TrEMBL record:
NCBIfam families (alphabetical): argH (TIGR00838)
Main location: cytoplasm
Organism whose genome encodes this protein: Thermodesulfatator atlanticus
Pfam families: ASL_C2 (PF14698), Lyase_1 (PF00206)
Location relative to the cell: Cytoplasm
Family from the record: Belongs to the lyase 1 family. Argininosuccinate lyase subfamily.
GO MF terms held by the record: argininosuccinate lyase activity
Protein name (database record): Argininosuccinate lyase
Family annotation (PROSITE patterns): FUMARATE_LYASES (PS00163)
Length: 463
């Protein structure tokens, strides 16, 4: 098969520069297992519908299976001049079984072929992403359960705000990654639609059985419009958007790990095996894994924008621009999956430095809101209580006192509503225990959240 499959109407060879510029086999060859799988399903259907003979289908399938083994064992010779994975496999099949190989392409086009291959590939990636998200969520739940009594400062504007349980903080990330899981599950349903049978753009005159192919390939539905099917890349955009959101969450987690490991915070340590050193400063222990997760989020955001830019002005149906969907997709897959695994290792290896967290809670007047709430219970309107506590905090700053160190007689100079029982309101443990609202940081509520998450994860694992 020396001539290009589409070369019949051409009178001269393709310019080498054009071949180099248009070829995609150097990246789309990773679709080969899916291309072969879809081709085998297509061949079986053609035989069942008596479009080709059973003997021809058997010969085609045997040839495809042999090519699959060669690719898996690294013996297959990829030829860039054949443009892409599909034409490389078709040419190899022709060399193995002769002209009957040409019958495989009956009732299909590279347009519906590539759309099918990418959906099969991405379905596997999403399944793996969901699994790795479940592992990450489990690691957060485990770490939260181990640290149910640990209190650290909660922050707003990166300033000390109120005391919270470390477990509550970790479970906040559980909720982010739970939403990421739900997004990927929804994307999988969008992916799992079979476009094969749409052919180039208008369908095919052959009496094919699209349902048979869809069943064999595990698709749940058929595409409903052939023109849309061959040009639709929404499912990739949906995946890239879900991946970008997930990387944003991973980046936020990474940022906190980086901050918490710094001497200024000193809240955690990480195992040496997850850190690197400096080529010049022998004392350094750097959280490079977290930094790279944070940094790689940008490329995933860019991949989403790249594909949106490709599709935004395309007329129906297939245009060669759509070849540019795969590199952003593959890069995102190759970034997301390792990042999820490494984030899991970071959480599993994270060692809280509880004494430093406790010491940090003693700075910044974290129970000032509790003092305002105390005054409200005593009958003062909240805005008046807020203003009064602000004055007390200013007094503490001037005198170098913590709230619970202020003598009762000094408190009562601000208002006689403050009595001896105020000191119960100013403890860290009292502060977190009082926040019993559903979703709050009280130990009983956080314990409930952990149990609910454990049940959720067990159900997902058994599904």
């Amino acid at each position: 098969m020396a001539q290009k499959p589409w070369g019949g109407r051409f009178s001269e060879a393709t310019d080498k520069l054009v071949e180099e510029f248009t070829q995609s086999v150097h990246f789309d060859k990773r679709l080969a297992p899916y291309d072969i799988r879809a081709s085998i399903a297509h061949a079986r259907m053609l035989a069942k519908q008596k479009i080709i003979s059973a003997e021809e289908a058997e010969k085609i399938i045997a040839g495809l299976e042999e090519i699959a083994r060669e690719i898996e064992e690294g013996r297959f010779h990829w030829r860039p001049e054949l443009e892409d994975v599909h034409m490389n496999i078709e040419a190899a099949l022709y060399e193995k079984i002769g002209p009957v190989a040409g019958k495989l392409h009956t009732a299909r086009s590279r347009n519906d072929q590539v759309a099918t291959d990418v959906r099969l590939f991405l379905r596997d990636v999403v399944d793996e992403g969901v699994r790795r998200l479940r592992e990450l969520r489990q690691s957060l739940v485990n770490k939260a359960r181990e640290n149910l009594e640990v209190i650290l400062p909660g922050f707003t504007h990166l300033q000390h705000a109120q005391p919270v349980l470390l477990a509550h903080h970790l479970m906040a990330y559980y909720e982010m990654f739970r939403r990421d899981t739900l997004r990927l599950v929804a994307v999988r349903r969008e992916i799992n639609v079979c476009p094969l049978g749409s052919a180039a753009l208008a369908g095919t005159p052959f009496p094919i059985d699209r349902e048979m192919v869809a069943r064999e390939l595990g698709f749940e539905a058929l595409s409903r419009n052939s023109m849309d099917a061959v040009s639709d890349r929404d499912f990739i955009i949906s995946f890239l958007a879900a991946a970008a959101t997930c990387l944003a969450h991973l980046s936020r987690l990474a940022e906190e790990i980086i901050l918490w490991m710094s001497p200024e915070f000193g809240f955690i340590d990480l195992p040496d095996k997850l850190c690197t050193g400096s080529s010049i400063m022998p004392q350094k222990k750097n959280p490079d894994v977290a930094e790279l997760i944070r940094g790689k989020s940008g490329r995933v955001f860019g991949n989403l924008l790249a594909l949106l830019t490709v599709v935004k002005g395309l007329p129906l149906t297939y245009n060669r621009d759509l070849q540019e969907d795969k590199e952003p997709l593959f890069d995102t897959c190759d970034t997301l999956l390792p990042a999820l695994r490494l984030a899991t290792l970071l959480v599993e290896g994270l060692v809280p430095r509880k004494e430093n967290m406790r010491a940090a809670c003693e700075e910044g007047h974290l129970t000032a809101t509790d003092l305002a709430d105390y005054l409200v219970i005593k009958g003062l309107p909240f805005r008046e209580a807020h203003h009064l506590v602000g004055q007390i905090v200013a007094f503490c700053e001037e005198k170098g006192l913590r709230l619970w160190e202020v003598p009762l007689e000094e408190f009562q100079k601000f208002t006689p509503l403050i009595e001896e029982d105020v000191y119960e309101w100013l403890t860290l443990e009292g502060s977190v225990k009082r926040r019993k609202v559903f979703g709050g940081t009280a130990p009983e509520r956080v314990s409930e959240a952990i149990r609910a998450a454990e049940e959720e994860l067990a159900k997902e694992a058994g599904a």
